[in-house]
Design brief:
Layout lengths: L9 H12 L11 E7 L1 E2 L5 E16 L4 E6 L6 E2 L4 E5 L2 H36 L5 H33 L2 E3 L4 E6 L6 E2 L4 E18 L3 H6 L2 E6 L6 E9 L9 E8 L11 E7 L6 E3 L5 E2 L4 E7 L2 E6 L1 E6 L2 E6 L6 E5 L8 E7 L8
Parallel strand pairs: 1-22
Antiparallel strand pairs: 1-21, 2-15, 3-10, 3-14, 4-6, 4-9, 5-8, 6-7, 8-10, 10-13, 11-12, 11-14, 12-13, 15-20, 16-17, 17-18, 17-21, 18-22, 19-20
Helix pairs in contact: 2-3
Pfam families: Beta-barrel_RND_2, HH_MFP_RND, YknX_C
InterPro entries: Beta-barrel_RND_2, MdtA-like_HH, RND_pump_MFP, YknX-like_C
GO molecular function, one term: efflux transmembrane transporter activity
């Protein structure tokens, strides 16, 4: 005969039967917790890149030593010149006239000296015979000394005029490249006014501008790498040679010169170059700030491997706005928990859902 129970009693009996079927030693299965994870990557923001231009260490503004009308310009911008090669010429007419005048003055001074010398010798003989006074002889002697001094002056002036005549041809003392033309034929130029700008290509540098908050970085940089925009495969070692002591008033940046060490022939003046400033050591790892926790025993992160979460102590090099830089305890490519660490226990099974890092979000 079937037994019927009141409706309120049936659920209680079902629960009792379920408990009776379970042994006392069985534990309930562990819950699988869902966590957000992110792959550990190297901090690519640990380096700075500056764009600059390939320049020569020695750049010269070439000018005539004398003024005059520019009669001819013999080279153009970009020309490679040799030492002593004529580059430009002035109209030599005025210089030749000045040289001719100096030569004529030299001849007159020589003639005056000859006359004064003969007069002095004649008066010396008359003085010995007591035919003239000592005062008369002293006057001739003074005239001789003055003529001799005027001759020396005329000789110096003649040499100066001769040199100035040779200054009508402009040349360089060193092999160089013409980078700019600053005057044209027919133009009247003054002494010292720049006509050509030259660059000596034996030493090449990169001219860059450094913001004031990066000065310490460029001064203490352990390695500088320079590559060309037109030739990305070419990388040249560099070193800081010069850093301006004051900022440019317009850009508020500091001019710096990076010397190239053994640049290849493909590196030419005027090319665009990039200077990469970085550390010679291993690049640190970057993890999100909320991945690093501290439970009183130092910083640690939860690492997910084979579907299980495990805590791991780490060494934090620096906390930044974009994350924590890890210097030890992790390796690039490992997966860390970035959300859901509050209730994790060691070895707990987790369901990992990757999140996109800020650098990859668009």
């Amino acid at each position: 005969m079937a037994t019927f129970y009141p409706p309120r009693v049936a659920p209680i009996l079902a629960a009792l039967l379920l408990l009776a079927g379970c042994s006392a030693g069985d534990a309930p299965p562990a819950a699988v917790r869902t966590v957000l994870v992110q792959t550990v990557a190297q901090a690519d923001s640990g380096m700075s890149i500056y764009t600059g231009e390939i320049r020569a260490r020695h750049e010269i503004d070439l000018a005539f030593r004398v003024g005059g009308k520019l009669a001819a310009r013999l080279v153009d911008a970009g020309a490679e010149i040799k030492a002593g090669q004529p580059l430009a010429r002035l109209d030599p007419a005025d210089l030749q006239l000045a040289a001719a005048t100096a030569r004529a003055q030299l001849g007159a001074a020589e003639s005056e000296l000859t006359t004064a010398k003969a007069e002095r010798e004649r008066y010396a003989g008359l003085l010995g015979k007591k035919f003239v006074s000592q005062a008369a002889f002293d006057a001739k002697d003074n005239a001789f000394n003055s003529a001799q001094a005027r001759l020396e002056q005329a000789r110096s002036q003649n040499q100066i005029s001769g040199n100035q005549a040779s200054y009508s041809t402009l040349s360089s003392e060193y092999p160089a490249v013409v980078t700019a033309v600053l005057a044209e034929a027919g133009q009247v130029v003054g002494a010292g006014q720049a006509v050509l700008r030259l660059a000596r290509p034996e030493e090449k540098e990169v001219a860059i501008a450094i913001p004031e908050n990066r000065l310490a970085e460029i001064k203490t940089a352990q390695s500088l790498a320079v590559n060309l925009w037109a030739e990305p495969k070419i990388t040249v070692r560099g070193e800081l040679r010069e850093l301006a002591p004051a900022a440019d008033p317009a850009t508020r940046t500091y001019a710096a010169r990076i010397r190239l060490i053994e640049p290849p022939a493909e590196v030419r003046l005027g090319m665009t170059a990039r200077v990469v400033v970085g550390s010679a050591g291993a690049a640190p790892l970057l993890v999100p700030l909320n991945a690093v926790i501290d439970q009183g025993q130092g910083p640690l992160v939860w690492v997910v491997s084979d579907g299980k979460a495990t805590p791991r102590p780490v060494q934090v090099a620096q906390f930044r706005e974009d994350g924590a830089m890890i210097s030890g305890g992790l390796q690039a490519g490992e997966v860390v928990v970035v959300a859901g660490t509050a209730k994790l226990v060691p070895g707990q099974s987790v369901q990992a859902k990757p999140v996109t890092p800020p650098s990859g979000q668009r």
